[in-house]
Amino acid sequence: MTLKAQSSQMTENLVGIIDETLIDNALIENTVIVNTALESTAQSSQPLSYRHAFMLVLKRDLTIAMRHKDDIINPLLFFVIVVTLFPLGIGPEAQTLSRIAPGIIWVAALLATLLSLDRLFKSDHLDGSLEQMLLSPHPIFVLVLAKIFAHWLITGLPLLLIAPLLAVLLHLDEHSYTALLLTLLLGTPVLSLLGAVGVALTVGIKKGGVLLSLLVLPLYIPVLIFATSAIDTAALGLPYSGQLAIIAALFFGSLTLAPFAVGAALKVSTN
């Protein structure tokens, strides 16, 4: 084999090794996508629109989640395990389970959401993507809102879909299923929005899980109270529009204020 052929073969082997390393490296996955967005913005005579920037960050986070499926599976498995443990510990009496079913489902959903919050900004902070987002010409609240929406699609939506099946296991009253779905539809986005504020405040702390729980859990209590109250009221055949209106107010209030609070907290935490 000639020297030129050997050199060519060594080059091909080296390129193959580098390609395999890049595929398995999660930090490089994050950075490349963000750099591409920033370069396209810098090279373009017109900056990306808010909608385009929102969709770009949303697609990025969903792509990363699809490559690391444990981000989706772990909170869902935790939710299922917590709900299924209660019948084993309390007993199979249908009347008892039916009475406490709303609280069980909502506490499990709250804890599953809390479990998934840590990765919302942590990986971006470690690989430098978060600083690039803060330096982006787009308002930080647009990018933050896209990340929160991606988090809800990854965590909140699966909980919403599987909750009715677990409600059957807990003998939830047949009149309460609509209330359960509506409260989860309005309430789980509030959990993601409020949780993002806590994550942004603790993103620079290496072991901030306990502090995150202390910050976020008190904010979750109103959602938990009114959601379980709506489901219990529906089981009695009474109107529960008042509780839904309060949860909706919490949702729209969080949707309006949380992205700005998260953006400000991220700037403080990264400095």
From TrEMBL:
Membrane topology of this protein: Multi-pass membrane protein
Function: Required for the export of heme to the periplasm for the biogenesis of c-type cytochromes.
Family membership noted in the UniProt record: Belongs to the CcmB/CycW/HelB family.
MF GO annotations: heme transmembrane transporter activity
Cell inner membrane listed as a keyword: yes
Keywords in alphabetical order: Cell inner membrane, Cell membrane, Cytochrome c-type biogenesis, Membrane, Transmembrane, Transmembrane helix, Transport
The keyword Cell membrane belongs to this UniProt entry's keyword annotation: yes
Biological processes per GO annotation: cytochrome c biosynthetic process; cytochrome complex assembly
Chain segments annotated as transmembrane: 72-91, 103-121, 141-167, 179-203, 210-231, 243-266
Main location: membrane
GO cellular component, one term: plasma membrane
Location(s), subcellular: Cell inner membrane
InterPro entries noted in UniProt: Cyt_c_biogenesis_CcmB (IPR003544), Cyt_c_CcmB_bac (IPR026031)
Name of the protein in question: Heme exporter protein B
